[in-house]
Amino acid sequence: MLTPRIENFVLHCGEMGSRWGFNRTIGQMVGLLVINEQPLTANDIADALKISRGNVSMGIKELQSWQLVRVHHIPGDRKEYYAPNGSIWDLANKVFEERRKREIDPTLSLLRDQILAEANTEQEKYAQKQMQQIHDLLETVTKWSAELQRLSPEQLQSLMKLGAQVSKVIDLKDKLLRKN
Amino acid sequence: MLTPRIENFVLHCGEMGSRWGFNRTIGQMVGLLVINEQPLTANDIADALKISRGNVSMGIKELQSWQLVRVHHIPGDRKEYYAPNGSIWDLANKVFEERRKREIDPTLSLLRDQILAEANTEQEKYAQKQMQQIHDLLETVTKWSAELQRLSPEQLQSLMKLGAQVSKVIDLKDKLLRKN
DNA sequence: AGTGTCTTTCAGTAATTATTGAAAGTTTAA
DNA sequence: TTAAACTTTCAATAATTACTGAAAGACACT
User: Fold this and answer.
1) Which B residues 115-174 touch A at CB under 8 Å?
2) Would you tell me which of A130, B22, B107, B168 could form a disulfide with B26, CB atoms 3.0–4.6 Å apart?
3) What is the pTM of this model?
């Protein structure tokens, strides 16, 4: 069914998937969908990964909650065909975005509450200081991720290629701002 | 032992920890260490989190493999005292770095092999195209993360505060490069 | 209304992962 | 060398998470 090489890739996606917020099987599903040009049916997936039809159904549901797959229909065919919901970049973005919503946002909200509360003991005062640090870090991450979403593909590419020049640009920017 | 508020924070760290590469208990350990100004002994941790002494030992070992804790000694005292290994920012960095090593690097290596191999079928050709995309994305991420490590704290702060101005700076850089 | 084709659900079970606690290991000091 | 104070290890077990397959649901066609 799968060539050894493609199977190799899919298995690897499984291992990685479990570190990115879904389980091994779901990681494999993503891998499988991504390297197949044609959309696959639930049965294709079950056969390729040797898992039950029910498991595929649950996996697809999960992937839809992450907005990572989309459904195709072929006229005269009742089956659903699944394909990745966008380019590799789009998918990576969706995962980030979704994790931000599920992890960072609730954490920020908890931290804000804690920071606003009155610190009674020395221990709590120090705790608040640390929480403030975490809060600031997460807020920065959030802002940046929003910013990345907003950039045009061209700007993004420009930014991505910046690489080793980041520091030069920063220095440049600092100089310019000082002049203003 | 823990004030309700601090316990709340620690529990939350547990939930988050399980999404960041360690398990719930280890997440709680990090939370606990981070909000305590004084280093804690293994027994302090076991008591605070209501887990066994052995579990603390394993957790510490894991955290050391991530370089997230450091050991203190008090003269005349044989116990080991544990504290976070650096500021919040340092810790976040360590986690990123470690995950890069464990997840991204092996993936890049697999992808490179696959991309160099000869594609026999159409299916494999498409698969390679997609793998190339993933490869490029991961390589960019890797380069950027290396770059961030290299920046001075001042430059970093500058970059972090950039936020909504990213696009302006990119445009600026594009203009300048064109002139050169 | 009935049948065929497909999808979803979920109780039961399998697989995996985390935890305990007793035993073994380490280090210091007398 | 023995003991005391600590840490680490790991086999047994508990807790959690994932998977199966049979049943129910949905839908289109006749």
Assistant:
1) 117, 120-121, 123-124, 126-127, 130-131, 133-134, 137, 140, 143-144, 147-148, 150-151, 155, 158-160, 162-167, 169-174
2) B22
3) 0.92
Q: How many CA atoms lie within 13 A of B1 on its CB side?
A: 12
Assess whether A48 and A99 both reside in one domain.
no
User: Of A144, A39, A55, nearest to A96 (Cα)?
Assistant: A144
Q: Is the same domain home to B64 and B93?
A: no
> Tokens at residue B83, please?
């504290």
Residues B74 and B146 in one domain: no
Collapsing DSSP states into helix, strand and coil, what is residue B161? Answer: helix
Kindly report, residue by residue over A108-163, the tens digit of the pLDDT.
999 999 999 999 899 999 999 999 999 999 999 999 888 888 887 787 777 777 76
Write down which residue in A66, A84, A102 finishes a domain: A84
Closest amino acid to nucleotide C5 (CA–C1'): A78
The gap between A48 CA and C4 C1' (Å) is 25
φ and ψ at residue B2, rounded to 5 degrees: -100, 140
Give the CA distances from residue B129 to residues A8, A13, A68, A70, in Å, rounded to whole numbers and listed in that order: 16, 16, 19, 20
Contact B163 A151 (CB under 8 A): no
Which helix (H) or strand (E) segment is A81 a member of? strand A81-84
Residue where a domain terminates, one of B22, B54, B84: B84
Same domain? B49 vs B100: no
Asked whether residue A174 carries a pLDDT value surpassing 80, the answer given is no
Classify A78 as helix, strand or coil: coil
The whole-angstrom distance between A105's CA and the closest CA on chain B is: 11
Task: Provide the domain count of chain B.
Answer: 2
User: In this structure, are strands B40-41 and B81-84 parallel, antiparallel, or unpaired?
Assistant: antiparallel
- One-letter amino acid for residue B107 of the chain: T
pLDDT tens, position by position, A34-76? 999 999 999 999 999 999 999 999 999 999 999 999 999 999 9
Instruction: Give tens-digit pLDDT for A80-119.
Output: 999 999 999 999 999 999 999 999 999 999 999 999 999 9
- The tokens for A68 are 């990572």
